[in-house]
Amino acid sequence: MRTLAVALLLVLLTVPSGADTHTVTKTTFAGHEMIYAQYVQGKNMRTEDLGPDGSRRPVTIWDSGQKTMYLLDLQSQEYVEQSAHSADWIVLLAQWISRPPAIRESGKVVNIYHETIDTGERREFLGRTASHFLLRERHVAEPGACDWTHETEKDGWYIPAAKAGTAARPYLLGSYAGSIKTMCHDTVVNHGVPSLPGFPVLETDGSMTREVLEFSHDPLDKSLFEVPNSFRKVDALPGYPSVTWFQRLENDWRQLERAFESRFER
Are 70 and 236 in contact (CB under 8 A)? Predict the structure, then answer.
């Protein structure tokens, strides 16, 4: 589902944690512009599409306590409930049985050079002073390595965040041989510290630009993360087909069967 994919995307965006958070973000990619509002309270989340046709797209609410996603149509006052409880034990059993992916050691070295450049420029964003940084990363891979030689650069404005820290992360590159997934691993040597200078309020990597239009830590009303009593539960919303409990159960059993099969694959 498009709305669910967007919700997952927003979860991955860097948002300071702790207090209640409300952000409005504009993302531009390949000439297309998307504007979304996100509300976070604890582990609960609500997202709303504020684009030109946003009124026709459901509001998404994730209730972490109930492990349930709600899609709300504000115009018809109808909603769809999608629970993650259907057959958790089947999925967990499948994960336990499944053979872990094979990891192939390339035996090659990849040198990664990190460079964080403070341009010295300062600018006001949302009532805060942001600093202009260039984040460069250059990969130099030996012949035969999983990775390849390339460079990336992010150009952004950042405000101080409680948890900026480092962005260091090991990586595995995936490939498939028949039906078995194989992960490829290089020996990585980092040069410099891959640091994130703060919370990005405007950032671009040359293909996608993300800008925070609103940002607040003001307390949020709990009702934002609840389905209004006036809304009527339905099986599906127009344009957003729902997955039934039986379909989820059937999919979970397929995953379990696949896990058994993986034990006998070479």
Answer: no
Distance of CA 33 to the CA centre of its chain: 18
Lowest-confidence pick of 88-92, 142-146, 154-158, 188-192: 88-92
Q: How, if at all, do strands 102-125 and 128-141 pair?
A: antiparallel
Tokens of 112: 């990664």
**94 in a structural domain:** no
Residues in the chain: 266
Distance from C-alpha of 80 to C-alpha of 50, rounded to nearest angstrom:
20
Domain match, 53 and 127 both: no
Q: Give 147-205 as a DSSP string.
A: S--EEEEEEEEEE--TT--B------EEEEETTEEEEEEEEEEEES--B--SEEEEEE-
Please give the residue range of the domain that contains residue 120.
102-205
Contacts 24+ apart (CB under 8 A), 223-229: 224/39, 224/41, 224/46, 225/39, 225/41, 225/44, 225/45, 225/46, 225/61, 225/63, 226/61, 227/61, 227/70, 227/72, 227/79, 228/77
DSSP helix, strand, coil percent of the chain (3-state; round to 5): 15, 50, 35
Structural tokens at position 40: 């976070």
56 and 147 belong to one structural domain:
no
Give the predicted TM-score (pTM) of the model: 0.71
**Residue 266 belongs to some domain of the structure:** no
